[in-house]
Design brief:
Layout: H1 6-56, H2 67-76, H3 78-81, E1 84-89, E2 93-97, E3 122-126, E4 132-141, E5 147-155, H4 157-204, H5 223-273, H6 278-308, E6 317-320, H7 321-338, E7 342-349, E8 352-355, H8 357-373, E9 380-388, E10 391-398, H9 420-425, H10 432-442, E11 446-452, E12 456-464, E13 469-475
Parallel strand pairs: 7-9
Antiparallel strand pairs: 1-2, 1-5, 3-4, 4-5, 6-8, 7-13, 9-10, 10-12, 11-12
The structure holds adenosine-5'-triphosphate and magnesium ion.
Magnesium ion (MG) is lined by residues 366, 369-370, 428, 432.
Length: 476
């Protein structure tokens, strides 16, 4: 469990606060109930003492012996109700003492007499077995001048039973309620953070190629909504910036095209129309070669920028990919033969898709061109087309120089060349694979590369869906 996560911290705070609130509630209920029960029992005891002291004791001189005991027993049944009642006359001694209660909770004869100001007040007497007796004492003076002390008591246990019951209820329900709150809080946090998960997932999928997409806006009217809106605005600004850069590259490449063509024509004109010394002709020849190279780079840049900017309108028509690959590989076989490289094809017949013929041909040309360029004399190249897992796979593999592991993630970047010296010697600018990637993306296809340095490379293009029979051919 991630204790730093918002979900954990919020749930912990929530559960902690709830626990505090429940504890405070429990303590106040406990204290309140204790006060209330004490007050109720005391009122009852006071009222008993008062009844005995005012109504019964006044009649005592006129009554026979035993009358008081009979009256008190009849009115309060102390043994049955577990009560303590004692009437004491100053100078005479105990006039009435209740018997031992049925449950034997206390022994009335052992209850000590109140002293001093306790003679008119409440006491909590601790008995031997740890129990307590709540007693109320009151003094009375009858009309004949006799002084009485009337005591009434009840076991404190009755209050304790109620309070213990409350404690038990709180002890059982508090952990239960807190656990329920933790589970509920965790689930609620999960639910409320779900939109953030969705945003994160969508944001992960946004790259330079789909900056026009937007994240789902969370309509909560709070920080989450502000976050999603702010992210969307940021993606919008990125989109603008990317489009600006693409526009700039496209415009720059476009503007460079014309002067370059003029330069080439001028240079060719000089070579053809004027008698030149051998060294001057060589110099102009090499300048011409460089302008050709520049033209190729400018063309490639223009293609990539236009594809990125979505300016290229792809004619996505039903296309026999099997035929296109067989034909292109056949045409490129001439180049392979120059290096004595065997160019083998393994193409399932009849595989077609909706695609732009010119651009898809460029994908195949660029991949085979690389394979030829970076494979040593006498090597082998395999071009295959097949269906796998509902996808159309085009694979170009060679047993050439391979690509170093650290260079693999970068080969689709513009102007990236794994071995600068070697590729430049072979005329590469590092744009071929960027074009391939841009075309594949425009066709919703993925492109992947695996390679081992010194053993060869394998480029794999995966188009979504379609059907076939099989033809194989190998030429060198
Ligand atoms: N089949 C391959 N075998 C070995 N290295 C390769 C292969 N294909 C590509 N590479 C490496 O990836 C780099 C980028 O390839 P990319 O096609 O983009 O550029 P390039 O071939 O150098 O130039 P361009 O294609 O623009 O003429 C190459 O410079 C090369 O180092
Ligand atoms: Mg290339």
């Amino acid at each position: 469990m991630n204790v730093r996560s918002l979900r954990f911290r919020m749930t912990a705070w929530y559960a902690g606060l709830l626990l505090c609130a429940l504890l405070m509630f429990g303590v106040s209920v406990y204290l309140g109930l204790e006060r209330y029960l004490n007050w109720t029992f005391q009122s009852m005891l006071v009222s008993e003492c008062r009844t005995i002291g005012t109504e019964l004791l006044a009649q005592l001189p006129a009554k026979r012996a035993g009358w008081l005991a009979a009256e008190v027993n009849e009115a309060y049944a102390p043994e049955v109700n577990g009560r303590f009642i004692r009437v004491y006359r100053d100078g005479t001694g105990i006039v009435y003492l209740s018997g031992t209660p049925k449950d034997g909770a206390f022994e009335p004869s052992e209850i000590p007499f109140p002293q001093g100001n306790q003679r008119d007040g409440v006491r909590r007497i601790h008995l031997k077995d740890g129990r307590q007796l709540l007693t109320q004492a009151m003094t009375f003076t009858t009309p004949d001048g006799s002084h009485f002390l009337v005591e009434s008591g009840t076991p404190y246990q009755q209050i304790q039973i109620v309070l213990h019951g409350l404690l038990l209820t709180l002890a059982i329900y508090t952990p239960f309620i807190v656990s329920l709150a933790i589970a509920g809080g965790y689930w609620l946090m999960r639910r409320s953070l779900q939109p953030v998960d969705e945003i994160t997932e969508r944001a992960e999928g946004i790259t330079s190629s789909n900056l026009s997409e937007r994240l789902p806006t969370i309509r909560t009217g709070d920080e989450l909504e502000r976050l999603s809106t702010a992210l969307n605005r940021m993606i919008g600004r990125l989109d603008d910036a990317f489009q600006h850069i693409n526009r700039f590259s496209a415009d720059a490449s476009h503007e460079l095209r014309t002067p370059l063509t003029i330069l080439q024509l001028e240079l060719e004109g000089i070579v053809h129309n004027y008698p030149l010394s051998e060294s001057l002709e060589n110099q102009i020849g090499s300048a011409l070669e460089e302008t050709h190279r520049m033209s190729r780079i400018v063309e490639s840049l223009l293609t990539i920028s236009r594809l990125d900017a979505g300016e290229v309108k792809l004619d996505r028509l039903p296309l026999d990919l099997s035929e296109l690959i067989t034909r292109t590989a056949g045409e490129m076989n001439v180049l392979a033969q120059e290096k004595s490289i065997a160019l083998c094809t393994s193409v399932e017949a009849g595989i077609s898709l909706d695609g732009d013929r010119t651009h898809l041909q460029q994908v195949i040309v660029n991949l085979i061109d690389n394979a030829i360029k970076y494979t040593q004399v006498g090597g082998t190249i395999h071009v295959s087309l097949y269906l796998e897992g509902g996808k159309i796979i085009v694979a170009v593999s060679d047993n050439g120089a391979g690509i170093p592991a650290q260079a693999l993630p970068h080969v689709f970047e513009r102007f990236y060349r794994a071995d600068k010296a070697r590729s430049r010697a072979s005329g590469g600018a590092g744009l071929g694979l960027s074009i391939v990637k841009a075309i594949c993306t425009a066709h919703s296809a993925g492109i992947y590369v695996t390679s081992e340095e010194g053993l060869g490379s394998r480029f794999r293009v995966e188009f979504p869906t379609i059907s076939a029979s099989h033809t194989a051919n190998c030429a060198s």
